[in-house]
Amino acid sequence: MPDRSFLDWPFLDDSHRALADRLEAWCLHEIAPLGHDETDIDGQCRHLLRLLGDGGWLRYCIPASHGGVHPQLDVRSLSLIRETLARHHGLADFVFAMQGLGSGVVSLFGSAAQKAAILPGVAAGTRCAAFALTELESGSDVAAMTTSATRTAGGWIINGAKTYISNGGIADHYLLFARTGEAPGAKGISAFLVPADTPGLVIAERIRVIAPHPLATLHFKDMALPADSLIGEAGRGFAQAMASLDIFRTTVGAAALGFARRALDEATARATGRRLQGRLLADNAVIQAMLADMALAVDTAALLIYRAGWLRDVTGARNSREAAMAKLHATDSAQEVIDKAVQIHGGLGVVHGHIVESLYREVRALRIYEGASEVQRVVIARQHLAQAAAATPTQPAAA
Ligand SMILES: Cc1cc2nc3c(=O)[nH]c(=O)nc-3n(C[C@H](O)[C@H](O)[C@H](O)COP(=O)(O)OP(=O)(O)OC[C@H]3O[C@@H](n4cnc5c(N)ncnc54)[C@H](O)[C@@H]3O)c2cc1C
Questions:
Q1: In degrees rounded to 5, what are phi and psi of residue 36?
Q2: Which of 107, 208, 276, 383 falls between 20 and 30 A from 121, CA-CA?
Q3: Residues facing 133 on adjacent strands
């Protein structure tokens, strides 16, 4: 049974506690029985999308103006949902997360027509969403992207390629970022809403990864888009992507937290059930120290995640530093927690298909996407140093 004491923390309110209870009951009924089969991942994603839509959970991914739950996306609700889904089923968490990330820029900056076109379907689970930012050559250096959008009399022509695009191949639309050239670097990028069946958009390659989920490289060859596919202002795409990631980055930490909680539960069950040399593993001080470290890592991750969410939801403050801390610590420490769970399971822990073995693979990519751990350190250090410089009294000029 997972620890639920965190639900009483002051970062959360009664609506979050009720959400956690309802979702836990729903997961036990609808998601846990699905098991962790790794065949027909596309089909499973489509099935999970409809289940999550019918359950009403995807409404948390969009604003209340278009059928969502909160006037603005509530980071704590998104985090609670992701950690709960991840604890039960990694693919269910993935499907949920992509509906938010693949519509966030439209929720935040889209026109009324763009919102009406996609948000109701995103919430119902009848429309599969994707976010296409990364390119092979630019990667973490997003501002160096080269996919181009050239203005024409009727709209835009797109040429270039994106890679590692989640839901690539099964999505109904892509939020696409391309260089429109208003300025060099980050200030010359714009966001576009692109239906998946737009001529000129080709799924060039499906990519197989350590924990299977739909992932693809997309090519754009003279892809024509109408003028109204531009999201918000031209040249604001990089800032829009970062504003969206400020919301969702915390929730990547929450997914890692869900994986870590599951690993701790599994390790505890194993340690309290396995007898060696006439005593339980859990009676061994070395194993107790491992369990203590795991419990500490889970609680510190949860504190950082719900602090980052609270800061944004309640105070409205920009929380880039706190979101970076939450993602960095939760994903790095989840890796360590899961590794210890595998160790406590012994040989069973590396048997393909065992829950801790799948958690071991599932958690890895979270330290890479939506800003690698090293990039989060850069964000934290930059803000720390700026604060330190601002707090340093200026020295009076020498006489
Ligand atoms: C499973 C998965 C799903 C993904 N889904 C999506 C998606 O839906 N949409 C999308 O647009 N992208 C997606 N991505 C892409 C992801 O965001 C990129 O992989 C990530 O930004 C890193 O880019 P890269 O792979 O090119 O690595 P690189 O940029 O080459 O970085 C390699 C390593 O260099 C180090 N590094 C990078 N920058 C710095 C720095 N400033 N300081 C110090 N060290 C640094 C880090 O250790 C990093 O891991 C996904 C990736 C994966 C693995």
A1: -120, 55
A2: 208
A3: none
Calculate how far, in angstroms, residue 124's C-alpha sits from the geometric centre of ligand 1: 30
Verify whether ligand 1 is closer than 6 Å to residue 165 (CB atom). Answer: yes
Instruction: State if residue 139 touches ligand 1 by the CB under 6 angstroms criterion.
Output: yes
Residue tagged 């002051």 (tokens): 10
In our burial notation (b when 16+ CB lie closer than 10 A, e otherwise), range 50-88 reads ebbbebebbbbbbbeebebbbeebbbbbbbbbbbbbbbb
Which residue in 214, 163, 146, 141 sits closest to 372, CA to CA?
A: 141
Which of 240, 331, 369, 375 maximizes ligand 1 atoms within 8 Å of its Cβ, making it the mutation to test the pocket? Answer: 369
The answer to whether 233 is a known catalytic residue is no
For 228, the enclosing helix (H) or strand (E) is none
Identify the active-site residue in 83, 266, 322, 370. Answer: 370
| CA-370 nearest atom, ligand 1 | 17
- Distance in Å, CA 373 to ligand 1 centroid: 9
DSSP one-letter string for 85-106: HHHH-HHHHHHHHHHHHTTHHH
Largest distance between two CA atoms of the chain: 80
Identify the segments of the chain with pLDDT beneath 70: 1, 396-399
Per DSSP, 161 falls in state E
CA distance 191 to 230: 6
Residue 38 is predicted with a pLDDT of 87
How many Cα atoms sit within 13 Å of 148 on the Cβ side?
9
What is the C-alpha separation between 226 and 195, in angstroms, rounded?
Answer: 11
Report whether residue 166 contacts ligand 1, using a CB cutoff of 6 Å: yes
Evaluate: CB of 134 within 6 angstroms of ligand 1. Answer: yes
**Whole-angstrom distance, CA of residue 345 vs CA of residue 323:** 32
Structure tokens at 160: 């270039």
Q: Pull the structure tokens for residue 40.
A: 């027909």
The CB of 374 under 6 Å from ligand 1? The reply is yes
Residue 27 phi/psi, 5-degree rounding, is -60, -40
22: closest CA among 81, 79, 99, 103? 81
Measured CA to CA, the distance from residue 165 to residue 205 in angstroms comes to 10
Contact 74, 13 (CB under 8 A): no
State if pTM tops 0.90.
yes
137 lines ligand 1 (CB under 6 A): no
Map residue 189 onto helix, strand or coil.
strand
